[in-house]
Design goal:
The chain is an alpha/beta fold. It has eight helices and twelve strands. The N and C termini lie far apart (about 55 Å).
Length: about 240
C-alpha cells in the first residue's frame, strides 16, 4: 500500500510540483490550499506524513500544527517556510513539527526527507511489534522511559513529547554517559541520508530540557559537552 502524503501550500505551482514528484516517487498525494482545509484533511484522511507551509490563508501552518498536536494527532510534519528566520523554525519545531525546509528547495530533497521520516517510523513500528510483550523500560533518576509504549514519565508524570522529542530522549538514554555529536544525533534520530541542519538538534534538546530539568540553565540530565555535543547522564544526588 502506498504511503499517503498531505501537501498543504497556497502556491499552486509548489503544490503541483510536489504532487507530481511525490507521485512519481510512488506516494499517494492529497492537497490543500489553506490551513483550514489542511487541518480537515489531516483529521479525515489520516495521512502518513504532512508537508505543511508556514504562511497559509485562513489558518497558518503554526496554528495547524499546534491544533493537530493538541488533538493528539502525531502525524509527522515537515514545515515549509519562505523565511530564513531562526525564530520561525524554532517555533515550528516547538509546536510539534518534526522537520523544516526553507524555500526554495528541490523536490528531490523533500522526497528524501519524507522517505527518511517514514522509514524511521516503519522501523519503530516493527520494533514495537517485536518487543510488545517484553519489559524494556529505562530508568534514569526520576526519568522512566517505556520504548515499546512510546511513553516517558518524569517524577511519575507522563511527559507530553512530540515523536522526535521522544526518539531523541530514547536515543540519548540508550547511550547514557556517552558523548554524542550533533551529526550523530541527526543521523540516528532523523535518519537523514544527507548533510542536514544540526540546529534542529539544538532546538529539540532545549525543548526536552524544559520538560525534564529542574533548572534548564543547570541541567542535571542532558549535559552539553562544549565543542562536541550532548550526553545524558544519571543525575548527581546532593
Amino acid at each position: 500500500m502506498k504511503n499517503k502524503v498531505l501537501v498543504v501550500d497556497d502556491e499552486s505551482s509548489i503544490v503541483t510540483l510536489l504532487k507530481y514528484n511525490l507521485e512519481q516517487a510512488g506516494f499517494m498525494v492529497i492537497t490543500a490550499m489553506d490551513g483550514e482545509e489542511g487541518k480537515r484533511l489531516a483529521e479525515l484522511e489520516a495521512p502518513d506524513i504532512i508537508v505543511l507551509d508556514l504562511m497559509l490563508p485562513k489558518l497558518d501552518g503554526m496554528e495547524v500544527c499546534k491544533q493537530l498536536r493538541q488533538e493528539r494527532i502525531m502525524t509527522p510534519i515537515i514545515m515549509l517556510t519562505a523565511k530564513d528566520d531562526e525564530l520561525d523554525k524554532i517555533l515550528g519545531l516547538e509546536l510539534g513539527a518534526d522537520d523544516y525546509m526553507v524555500k526554495p528547495f528541490s523536490p528531490r530533497e523533500v522526497i528524501a526527507r519524507v522517505k527518511a521520516i517514514l522509514r524511521r517510523a516503519q522501523i519503530q513500528s516493527n520494533t514495537v511489534e517485536e518487543v510488545e510483550d517484553v519489559s524494556t523500560n529505562i530508568q534514569i533518576g526520576n526519568l522512566t522511559i517505556y520504548p515499546e509504549k512510546y511513553e516517558a514519565y518524569f517524577k511519575g508524570n507522563r511527559l507530553d513529547l512530540t515523536l522526535k522529542e521522544f526518539e531523541l530522549l530514547l536515543y540519548l538514554s540508550q547511550n547514557k554517559g556517552r558523548v554524542l555529536t550533533r551529526d550523530q544525533l541527526l543521523s540516528a534520530v532523523w535518519n537523514y541520508d544527507f548533510a542536514g541542519d544540526t540546529r534542529i538538534v539544538d532546538v529539540h534538546i532545549s525543548h526536552l530540557r524544559e520538560k525534564i530539568e529542574e533548572e534548564t540553565k543547570k541541567p542535571a540530565y542532558i549535559k552539553t559537552v562544549r565543542g562536541l555535543g550532548y550526553k545524558l547522564e544519571e543525575p548527581k544526588i546532593e
